Amino acid sequence: MTLVLVEIDAGGVIEVSRETLTFARSLGDLVDAVVVGDLGDAARDQLASYGVRTVHHATGEAFDAYAGAAWAAAVQAGLRASGATHLLAAGTPRGMEVLAHVAAREDVPMAANVLSAEGSDPIVVTRQVVGGAALEEMRLAQSPTVLTVAGHAVEPRPADAPGAADVVDLAVDVSEADLVARVVSTEEPEPDLSGGLRSARVVVGAGRGAGSADGFGELLELTELLDASLGVSRVVTSLGWRPHHEQVGQTGSRISPDLYIPCGISGAIQHWAGCSSAKNILAINTDPDAPMVTKATYAVIGDLHEVVPAINAEIRRRRAG
Amino acid sequence: MTNVLVCVKRVPDSTSEVVLTDDGQAVDGRYAGFTTSAHEECAVELAAQVTGADGGEATVLTLGDDDAVEQLRSSLAVGCHAATHVVAEAHRFGPADVAREIAAVVREHEAAGRSHDLILLGNDAADSGDFQVGIRLAYELGRPVVNGVNQVSVADGVVTAQGAGPEGHETYRVPLPAVVTVLEGGVEPRYPSVQGRMKAKKVAIEQRTPATEPAGPDRVRLLLPPPAPSDVQILGKGADAAPAVVDVLEKLGVLSR
């Protein structure tokens, strides 16, 4: 039995959790889910379509505000109820945190950002390290095996045969200590902060090639024309040219747009870790050998300050026509 | 007064190409150089801010080889007051091993009358990317842990920690002693002053050997992902490429308006 900690938002089961359910089925065992907090009919139906047998559902006062340790207690109750020997979550901040709590409490290892798993005794996983620039093969010899699945390691795919997704309420023993580190308030994010960047369909990227804090005019114009979000490399935020919430990379946002247009970005590992999930990349760079150019789908060789205004003009010309 | 322990790791600089050691057990940083991860630089800054505000002491701790003293001196130059070096080969230690070693230092310091009310770590190491040392440490010490925040302040024995959550900007308030793991983005690490560097050179660093033999990281081996064959389609050079670019935008359906 494999148990998956599933995260749910207003739109139902989040994409990376659906990817994780797909990954879980590939391990060959039956799949149960554990959900903490609101579930909803739409999410339950999605879980059924992804082949989930039983949904272990934790609700109650202890889960009204997020506490990593309390969620871990719920997941542990799910482990006992399901008899699962594998525990998975998506490699989101919540998924990483809650499974790290569970691994510490169960005194077993945890593998973060797993791409694939092979064998059964022990399972050997391959996971991303150094921001995805290297891989590590890691043995998970103890039960339960605890791992988080890297974003976009697999395509989310419903099961051939849907599961029953019977919802069973979990009895969770949450101690006072589990609630000490608990969210006491949540403020709505400002509309332009990184949430929009992470879910944007098109992202225009800017790196050192922008030249200065004043060098973003034409890039912002292209962003506007394409109804896109602006993402920048670390050097841009380090130099104070743009705010940190626009940073794409290992220590910024990880994006997965249909199209990413990195302009004047060489494509160092730190940045690539955040944009490698883009479906198409159209790089604009003066250096034809820059990693970003060689890894791109399309490229223009040239200075962004010449190329981008010409693109903006061409878009306006076609729209006027 | 809040006494802070901030934990840092010497990691290969990943802004250039990654090379592995011959035995596939570690990243070889001899060519690229070494650094402190961005999350930990911010943790050091927060340690300096918290202790600067209330007169407490910031101690920086690392587990690493002899050269990791560079990371300790860098932290001393930007506001830490004391440093502890567990001299060991970091790649032989798994996340649970590292948490146990940090806990051993904390307990021994406490027994000697030096408490660490607040322990700051990076959210995840830039090389091994385990995402769990801070949480395991909290369980070792029986302390609460807040994970993945970028702003930290202390008042009246309570740490207020803030960061981005899935539904917005989240705030935690947790009584000390506590563990907090830090993400980049909330504070700007300061540059070391000449005076700071001079002071850092004079600080005597406490050197220790590991408290226990490590169980190891369960690593079979490291490997490099196969280079993706470049099949980039060059659309042109300079401004003349604009029509070809807009053709692609139309083809991908991102120009609809």
Automatic annotation (TrEMBL), chain A:
Q: Which cofactor does it need?
A: FAD
Q: Name one GO molecular function term.
A: electron transfer activity
Entry-linked InterPro entries? DHS-like_NAD/FAD-binding_dom (IPR029035), ETF_a/b_N (IPR014730), ETF_a/FixB (IPR001308), ETF_asu_C (IPR014731), Rossmann-like_a/b/a_fold (IPR014729)
Which top-level group of life is the source organism from?
Bacteria
Keywords, ordered alphabetically: FAD, Flavoprotein
What's one Pfam family here?
A: ETF
Instruction: Summarize where FAD binds, as residue positions.
Output: 208, 233-234, 247-251, 264-271, 285
Q: What are the residue boundaries of the Electron transfer flavoprotein alpha/beta-subunit N-terminal domain, all occurrences included? A: 2-183
Cofactor comment: Binds 1 FAD per dimer.
Question: What GO biological process, any one, is recorded here?
Answer: fatty acid beta-oxidation using acyl-CoA dehydrogenase
Query: What Gene3D superfamilies would the database entry show?
Result: HUPs (3.40.50.620), TPP-binding domain (3.40.50.1220)
The record describes the protein's role as:
The electron transfer flavoprotein serves as a specific electron acceptor for other dehydrogenases. It transfers the electrons to the main respiratory chain via ETF-ubiquinone oxidoreductase (ETF dehydrogenase).
Q: Which PANTHER family match?
A: ELECTRON TRANSFER FLAVOPROTEIN ALPHA, ELECTRON TRANSFER FLAVOPROTEIN SUBUNIT ALPHA, MITOCHONDRIAL
Entry's family note: Belongs to the ETF alpha-subunit/FixB family.
Instruction: State how it assembles.
Output: Heterodimer of an alpha and a beta subunit.
**Name this protein carries in UniProt:** Electron transfer flavoprotein subunit alpha/FixB family protein
TrEMBL record, chain B:
All copies of the Electron transfer flavoprotein alpha/beta-subunit N-terminal domain together span 19-217
Coiled-coil residue windows: none
Keywords, A to Z, come to: Electron transport, Transport
Cited Gene3D superfamilies:
HUPs
Q: Which GO terms describe its molecular function?
A: electron transfer activity
Under the heading InterPro entries, the entry gives:
ETF_a/b_N (IPR014730), ETF_b (IPR012255), Rossmann-like_a/b/a_fold (IPR014729)
Q: Which cofactor does it need?
A: FAD
Q: What does this protein do?
A: The electron transfer flavoprotein serves as a specific electron acceptor for other dehydrogenases. It transfers the electrons to the main respiratory chain via ETF-ubiquinone oxidoreductase (ETF dehydrogenase).
Q: How does it assemble?
A: Heterodimer of an alpha and a beta subunit.
Q: Which family does it belong to?
A: Belongs to the ETF beta-subunit/FixA family.
- What this protein is called in its record is Electron transfer flavoprotein subunit beta/FixA family protein
Query: Whose protein is this, by species?
Result: Nocardioides iriomotensis
